[in-house]
Amino acid sequence: MMRPEQEVLLGAEESHATPAIEGSGGDSDGPAVALRGLHRSFGSQMVLDGIDLTVGSGETLAVLGRSGTGKSVLLKLIIGLQKPDSGSIRIHGQEITRLDLDAMNELRKKMGFLFQHSALYDSLTVEENVAFPLRRHTKMTEPERRDRVKELLSGVGMESDLKKMPSELSGGMQKRVGLARALALEPGILLLDEPTAGLDPITSGEIDELILKLQEEHNMASIVVTHDLHSAKTFADRIALLHEGNVLIEGKFTELEKSDNEFVSEFLKRDS
Ligand SMILES: Nc1ncnc2c1ncn2[C@@H]1O[C@H](COP(=O)(O)OP(=O)(O)O)[C@@H](O)[C@H]1O
Ligand SMILES: [Mg+2]
Question: Residues with Cβ within 6 A of ligand 1?
Fold first, then answer.
């Protein structure tokens, strides 16, 4: 059984039309991601209660918040894995909440993502995992694909582990391969859900540095969900703190430090 997060990676079997990414209200000059008034409930539980956030091209936004505040839900809405109850999600100016599946799958090729619990395909080697999106979504020849996979794995320091199975890798190595796979289609937008969760502090620090490096090399708009303020400080241009369904505060770390909101100061104190 595949998790929905893994199925998303597969995309459409065959996309018939070529849905317009530009056009239909798209504006490639607009912010990479713009969220306005996003609401999402589960039953009677209001999880996101009017989220407004903007991420510009080349910018890294860290989304922080306690466990259960809706950080993963937020990313799933952006990738179209779930629909908001109301509100707007624009990707490069294009409203995605009304897109059909074909168009959404087309758009997803421009977004790289690494979900919290979606590990690699455990029956595929490292090489095959990273080749997967290339095989599915590009017309690369076998040798071209092999070169590209090597290049991607070398970018995350994993070029010597091509033939290994995911079960033979440490947690940090699995994240590295997941990052290489997320970057395979050269996405303009990168979404990472808790990329350092469950890793020891040293390995976490290495992944933080890697995210920063990839960000500089690929100049993507990134949203990185984390509960780790220390990580956020390493790689984020801006930080948004989610609390009780809203963005409690948003800004550079130094701006958050100046806040006199009690929850914000507590949050910063606890973790720094
Ligand atoms: N598919 C779902 N069905 C019901 N409740 C959900 C679903 N997905 C998330 N939730 C609830 O939404 C809240 C936020 O979840 P989540 O986004 O995973 O939090 P986190 O900030 O820890 O990533 C949690 O209370 C969770 O139980
Ligand atoms: Mg989560």
Answer: 42, 47, 65, 67-73
- Cα–Cα dist 43/218, whole Å: 40
The helix (run of H) or strand (run of E) holding residue 173 is: helix 171-182
pLDDT in tens, 10-48: 543 334 444 444 444 445 568 999 999 999 999 999 999
| 8 A C-beta contact, residue 156 and residue 177 | yes
Distance 145 CA to ligand 2 centre (A): 32
Can you tell me the distance from the alpha carbon of 10 to that of 167, in angstroms, rounded to the nearest whole number?
21
Total-model pTM: 0.89
Q: Which domains does the chain have, with CATH numbers?
A: 4-8+57-82+101-271 (3.40.50.300)
pLDDT, residue 17, reads 40
Closest among 47, 30, 32, 33 to 84, alpha carbons compared: 47
194 Rama sector, left if φ>0, alpha if ψ -120 to 50, beta otherwise: left
Measured from the alpha carbon of residue 66, the closest ligand is 1
